[in-house]
């Protein structure tokens, strides 16, 4: 229970000291650099405009095609289906994307489109495809792709024609009926449809190269998995061309698909026609011989026994001829099986259900495996294990089919021997018939056999032709061409430009805060117990010249800069000394230092001295920075016979060393020529006597010393001064420069180090965006922020409009 209470107390303290983001302060940070955000929006707005102006648009035309299950209108009368018909159980239709993108189909579509030249309008540093408009109607006379150099033709504003190559230009005639000839290309100008003042470029479209370019722009994607519906699309920069080409592509694909289907029927019809030619000649010879025999012998009839024998012979001869046809079919089937992985269209090589049921079932299973293999190749490589397993099974079936074909050949051979033996038997019986009747019956039988075979082949030829004529494409287009502009999409680009503009502007503000390594956190200066914030010196609105002119300009009005120094002066007047023992009513000694050069020590020293003199105090300023002092510039002094010469006893008259300024009650001692041992000189007894003299004759002694973060010259003076003033310059000093003040207090036992923030100006960009009870120096934070709301107490010079808009000082 005790542990629980302790944990609760710990978390309460943790939460009480935690800081959270104050969104009101965060909004002020962004508002302080609103012009960054506006500028960023303007930049991205210009980029957006230029992109929309010059970007080449891209259009996509698409249609939806559905693959059918029947190949012709006669399929419903047939009990079997061809092996290449698509159905819901296979995904053969997915392989059709390769047919659509084939070179043959795309080239055929381009031939149908009949667009030998592409014209571009030259305007605003860009080229615009003007299809279907044609400034010139041109007819290609000849074209040789091997010698054509693929140059660009240009129609000038003065109706001139120029042929441009990389290295040269050729001027060509541009008039009606003219024949233009360049290496590899010749064309005739049939019509001129442009006028002066317009400039066009055009190029010749080589079908083969254009087809290679278009193949990658053709899309063929499955609408839904395992459904034979595909989305066919084409992408191009011209909307009209995109639509027209897609329509021609569908026509070319339909023709290609029909040609592929009709190849099977064409093979069958060719085989039948070859056989018809053979039996047509045999039939003509048999008919002529029979007619001649009848005329010569005047034979009208024969006996019934002879008719019976000849009838049997005729049937046997006819069956033998059928066996020969079957033998030819079997040979074609064996050749078509081959060693490749392509389906065998067994219906087109003469086998039917009456030939051999086992062989047909093997062929059906073989084609199913071929289809399955093609499906696997869509996902895997040919070396994948699944494909190899299919290949092994296919080889087994191929072996079984070849074995069955061998059995078929043996079967046909056996039947042929039986037929030959039977024919021989009947011929022996026929030879017993008297000679005249025998010859007649022989001729009659030969004629009937050829006639029946010819009639059978003719019927097959008609049947195959009907099937071929009734074939349909494997697909049907079920939607109209839909054209969509895919890029650039104006609304999306504008939204993105606004988004990136805001992001870039806000990101720049946050980046500026994140990468700022300079001092901005005034609330952190009093984190050390021996360090206090004495005050904030506001930004001086005028240009500092570091000359005597500044003495008359500084603190000459009731500006916020003057009042900030008056506030520091007042705090110094009531601040207790760091010294425990002081010399009677001697003046106060103030040591002014900083971390590095350029933080405004001399500037603050002079202004603080001027502010003290306004209250009637007698002040002396000593240039104790013997290395790189700037104090003498404010008095237009040549920096000779100064502190360094006095400490080196080169100048022993203190009245020469101490000089009077043009400001009443303000005297000064310049640093003099830099010596080689500045640190040692500041520790001499002579310098201590000088300081004692100054404290006895002046109310305030201000020591403008070297930066404590760079050299240790002023370290001995830290413990002998009433007040140590540490200068930090706003947005100039290092981020953690205030820590040096605490380090000096600890290392040299200084009771109190007072920090003065110099050159401060309100800038919400660098203010804290967190809120929490742990924020230190809340009153001072409020004080320097509130001081800008003068409510008429200050005579601040009004800033011009530009400075007020952009918060410039």
From TrEMBL:
It is found in: Cell inner membrane. InterPro entries: AAA_dom, Bact_polysacc_biosynth/exp, GNVR, LPS_length_determ_N, P-loop_NTPase, Wzc-like_C. Residues 590-729 form the AAA domain. Keywords: ATP-binding, Cell inner membrane, Cell membrane, Coiled coil, Kinase, Membrane, Nucleotide-binding, Transferase, Transmembrane, Transmembrane helix, Tyrosine-protein kinase. GO terms for cellular component: plasma membrane. The keyword tRNA processing does not apply. Residues 19-112 form the Polysaccharide chain length determinant N-terminal domain. GO terms for molecular function: ATP binding; non-membrane spanning protein tyrosine kinase activity. Residues 306-333 form a coiled coil. Its EC number is 2.7.10.2. Belongs to the CpsD/CapB family. This is non-specific protein-tyrosine kinase. It comes from Dyadobacter helix.
């Amino acid at each position: 229970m005790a542990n629980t209470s302790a944990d609760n107390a710990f978390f309460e303290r943790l939460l009480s000291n935690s800081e959270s983001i104050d969104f009101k302060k965060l909004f002020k940070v962004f508002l302080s650099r609103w012009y960054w955000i506006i500028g960023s929006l303007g930049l991205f707005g210009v980029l957006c405009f230029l992109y929309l102006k010059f970007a080449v648009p891209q259009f996509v035309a698409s249609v939806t095609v559905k693959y059918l299950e029947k190949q012709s209108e006669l399929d419903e009368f047939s009990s079997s289906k061809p092996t290449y018909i698509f159905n819901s159980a296979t995904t053969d239709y997915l392989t059709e994307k390769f047919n659509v993108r084939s070179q043959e189909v795309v080239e055929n579509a381009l031939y149908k489109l009949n667009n030998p030249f592409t014209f571009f309008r030259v305007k605003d540093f860009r080229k615009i495809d003007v299809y279907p408009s044609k400034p010139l109607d041109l007819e290609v006379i000849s074209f040789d792709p091997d010698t054509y150099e693929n140059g660009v033709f240009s129609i000038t504003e003065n109706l001139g024609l120029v042929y441009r190559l990389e290295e040269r230009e050729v001027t060509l005639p541009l008039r009606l009926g003219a024949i233009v000839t360049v290496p590899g290309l010749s064309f005739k100008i049939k019509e001129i449809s442009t006028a002066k003042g317009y400039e066009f470029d055009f190029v010749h479209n080589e079908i083969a190269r254009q087809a290679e370019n278009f193949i990658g722009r053709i899309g063929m994607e499955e609408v839904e998995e395992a459904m034979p519906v595909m989305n066919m699309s084409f992408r191009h920069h011209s909307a009209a061309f995109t639509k027209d080409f897609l329509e021609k592509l569908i026509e070319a694909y339909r023709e290609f698909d029909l040609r592929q289907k009709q190849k099977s029927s064409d093979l069958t019809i060719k085989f039948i026609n070859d056989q018809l030619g053979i039996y047509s000649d045999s039939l003509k010879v048999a008919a002529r011989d029979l007619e001649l025999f009848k005329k010569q012998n005047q034979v009208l009839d024969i006996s019934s026994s002879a008719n019976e024998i000849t009838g049997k012979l005729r049937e046997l001869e006819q069956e033998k001829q059928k066996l020969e046809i079957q033998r030819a079919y079997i040979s074609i089937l064996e050749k078509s099986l081959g060693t490749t992985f392509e389906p065998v269209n067994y219906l087109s090589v003469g086998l039917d259900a009456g030939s051999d049921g086992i062989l047909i079932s093997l062929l059906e299973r073989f084609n199913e495996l071929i289809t399955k293999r093609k499906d696997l190749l869509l996902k895997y490589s040919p070396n994948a294990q699944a494909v190899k397993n299919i290949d092994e099974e296919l080889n087994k079936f191929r072996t079984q089919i070849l074995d069955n074909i061998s059995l078929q050949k043996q079967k046909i051979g056996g039947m042929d021997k039986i037929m030959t033996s039977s024919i021989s038997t009947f011929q022996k019986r026929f030879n017993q018939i008297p000679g005249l009747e025998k010859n007649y019956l022989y001729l009659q039988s030969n004629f009937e056999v050829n006639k029946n075979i010819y009639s059978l082949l003719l019927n097959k030829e008609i049947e195959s032709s009907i099937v071929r004529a009734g074939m349909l494409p494997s697909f049907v287009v079920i939607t109209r061409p839909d054209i969509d502009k895919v890029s650039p999409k104006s609304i999306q680009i504008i939204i993105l430009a606004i988004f990136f503009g805001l992001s870039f502007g806000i990101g720049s503000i946050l980046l500026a805060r994140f990468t700022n390594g300079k001092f901005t956190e005034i609330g952190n200066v009093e984190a050390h117990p021996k360090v206090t914030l004495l005050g904030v010196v506001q930004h001086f609105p005028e240009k500092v010249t570091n000359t005597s002119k500044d003495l008359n300009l500084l603190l000459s009005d009731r500006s916020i800069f003057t009042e900030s120094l008056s506030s520091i002066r007042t705090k110094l007047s009531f601040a207790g000394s760091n010294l425990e023992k002081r010399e009677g009513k001697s003046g106060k000694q103030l040591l002014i230092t900083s971390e590095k050069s350029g933080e405004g020590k001399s500037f603050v020293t002079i202004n603080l001295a001027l502010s003290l003199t306004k209250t009637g105090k007698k002040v002396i300023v000593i240039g104790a920075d013997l290395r790189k002092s700037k104090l003498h510039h404010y008095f237009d002094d040549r920096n000779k016979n100064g502190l360094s010469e006095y400490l080196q006893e080169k100048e022993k008259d203190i009245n020469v060393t101490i000089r009077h300024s043009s400001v009443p009650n303000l005297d000064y001692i310049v640093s003099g020529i830099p010596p080689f041992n500045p640190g040692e000189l500041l520790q001499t007894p002579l310098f201590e006597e000088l300081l004692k003299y100054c404290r006895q004759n002046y109310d305030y002694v201000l020591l403008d010393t070297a930066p404590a973060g760079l050299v240790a010259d002023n370290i001995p003076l830290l413990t002998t001064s009433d007040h140590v003033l540490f200068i930090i310059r706003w947005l100039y000093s290092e981020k953690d420069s205030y820590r040096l003040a605490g380090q000096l207090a600890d290392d040299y036992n200084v009771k109190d180090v007072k920090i003065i923030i110099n050159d401060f100006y309100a800038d919400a960009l660098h203010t804290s965006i967190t809120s929490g009870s742990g924020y230190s120096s809340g009153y001072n934070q409020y004080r320097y922020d509130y001081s800008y709301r003068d409510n008429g107490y200050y005579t601040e010079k009004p800033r011009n409009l530009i400075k007020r808009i952009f918060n410039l000082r």
